[in-house]
Specification:
mainly alpha
Length: 201
């Protein structure tokens, strides 16, 4: 489990137990010591608030026993948990990789080149294929392998190859070469012909 996943699981536990308790606090008996240590680390990031002496005295009176430790989410911790539960996932949602789409995994420099390409949509004579800009905008990054994941149609693959060809012509061939090697799609103006536009049938 990655650090951020571990942090989210701790925030989730605090949220659930605090809501169940009714007073918002998670008490010392409800978390194992290793989890309490993780909570202490989250407190230093402003995501969790630890009970002060007065809060612990009130909780002790409510519980009828000494409460030595208690924690609850701060507003920032709540928002981090809410966002974390809704954030884009690296895994494709059902139907994302349809029969007409192929999973394409791009290294950061390829992704940067495509972002420039789709960002110039209104200025290019040969614009990106329909839907390519949306794929680039919504792509998720698998941080474990440092790859951006897109699901492209054949037309979008060819259009991406054209964008990487433009990148090659203005400085770096590595991105286009890698794309050609991994996916067998290379843009070549001589081969494309005068009237062939990347990304069109």
């Amino acid at each position: 489990m990655r650090n951020w996943e571990r942090a989210l699981s701790v925030l989730e536990a605090l949220c659930e137990r605090g809501q169940a308790a009714g007073h918002g606090w998670t008490l010392d008996t409800e978390l194992l010591p290793p989890h309490q240590q993780q909570v202490n680390a989250l407190e230093s990031q402003g995501l969790v608030e630890l009970a002060c002496r007065e809060d612990r005295a009130e909780l002790s009176a409510l519980e009828g026993r000494p409460v030595r430790w208690a924690a609850r989410l701060t507003p920032y911790g709540h928002d981090t948990l809410t966002y974390g539960q809704s954030r884009p996932r690296a895994e494709p949602s059902p139907g994302e990789a349809g029969p007409d789409r192929q999973l394409v995994e791009l290294i950061p420099s390829q992704m940067a080149a495509l972002r420039v390409f789709v960002g110039l949509t209104g200025q290019l004579r040969v614009p990106p294929a329909d839907g390519l800009a949306e794929q680039v905008r919504t792509a998720s990054c698998d941080h474990g392998i440092k790859r951006w994941r897109l699901y492209l149609t054949q037309g979008q693959m060819e259009s991406a190859a054209y964008g990487l060809w433009l990148h090659r012509m203005t400085g770096s061939a590595a991105e286009a070469n890698r794309f050609g090697r991994e996916y067998g799609v290379v843009y070549c103006p001589a081969r494309a012909g005068a009237h062939s536009i990347p990304g069109t049938p």
